[in-house]
Amino acid sequence: MTEPVRVDRRVEDLLRATAPRVLGALVRRYGHFDECEDAVQEALLAASVQWPEQGVPDNPHGWLSTVASRRLIDQIRGEAARRRREEVDFARLPLDEQVGVAADRDGAADRDDTLTLLFLCCHPALTAASQVALTLRAVGGLTTEQIAKAFLVPEATMGPRISRAKQRIKAAGATFEPPARGDWPDRLRVVLHVLYLIFNEGYTASSGPELQRADLAAEAIRLTRAVHRQLPEDGEVAGLLALMLLTDARRAARTTADGALVPLADQDRSRCHTPAIREGLELVTGAMARSELGPYQLQAAIAAVHVEAARAADTDWAQIKVLYQILERISPNPMVTLNRAIAVAMADGPAEGLALLEPLGEDSRMAGHHRLPAVRAHLLEMAGDRSGAREAYELAARRTASLPEQRYLAERADRLR
């Protein structure tokens, strides 16, 4: 049995950061997203074998571009007999574009196509699940096996899902270029939403034995940083990055040594990551001062109020309540209302919060979601209704697929017996 390749963490980080730029350059030059992505994956595999032994080249981007270009050209030439269209397209290329970019040429390395690649992976023809999977594969550099493990599905399921996503992009006639000016806001909004979904799955896994998937959260932060570098003046990009940093800063405080969930009120805030908090606060303060207010900035502002409180008892719930009222007005959805109900209960009493929860029971988007009965249970417990709280905790525990959340909710119910 072949030993798995073990890659130095620094080499792995370098490959992951460089891969989307290489893929973007290849797609821009040759088209054929599918073939380019395969060629880049082969180049990454070659680098993961050679670099730890021979050393990282002076120009990693150029090295990967050269290898990937040659693999792509070999593939096109090898399939010429049965794929006539690719042969004709290739023959039309100028002579100087029929060879890979030399490793010592820096011209192509100056252009970063990461954002354009993100736009392509988040094409509106794809479902949200396919957008997330393709983004993690093409831009994040994760293997199909890694993505499948992250979402607890077999690799045999995830592989075809990614392949279908590529085919849908091809069938939609998508080209490797930024969206038209009029489509820019909507497409950027989709990109940010996909990154938000990836982060949320990493911060609180929807299923499985672990509460958090640190690798997914870190990947979402890395990709959002890449977007922020290209759009430093966009307030919502800065707001999303700030939200991720301020939220992820509490990661170490959210679980015990054995992985059990620690609720916000009981977390040891001295364990929070101070540099991430400092950066997040600076980002959200700057964004709100110079940009039109948006939902990610508001969520980051709420996260900032939480982390600025030295103790749970010091939390300014009145300010959080106001921020949620504004957020609900500009971006209404049931999850915002759910969180606003918590803030209202903490600021004005549980009866006020419970009243806000009532309409959510009729909202089809909340049907079967564990968070609604979990919040109701907490507010009922605050109000002194132990029997009602116990039943709601038990319902929430049955609905969630996250084992740490199940255990926590079941323990809360048992305490009220």
How would you describe the overall organization of this protein?
- The chain contains 19 helices and two strands.
- Helices cover 65% and strands 1% of the residues.
- It has a two-stranded parallel ribbon with strand order 1-2.
- The chain has helices at 9-30, 33-54, 60-78, 84-91, 114-121, 128-138, 144-150, 155-171, 184-203, 214-230, 235-248, 274-290, 295-308, 317-330, 334-348, 350-357, 371-383, 386-399, 403-415; strands spanning 207-208, 401-402.
- The chain has 417 residues and is mostly helical.
Helicity, as a percent range: 55-70%
Report the portion of residues in β strands: under 5%
Let me know the number of strands: 2
Order of helices and strands: HHHHHHHHHEHHHHHHHHHEH
The number of distinct helices, counting runs of at least 4 residues, comes to 19
Main beta sheet: 2 strands, parallel
End-to-end distance: 54 Å
Radius of gyration: 24 Å
Mean pLDDT, to the nearest integer, reads 86
Q: Low-confidence spans: pLDDT under 50, at least 5 residues?
A: 1-5, 95-109
Spatial shape: elongated
Structural class: mainly alpha
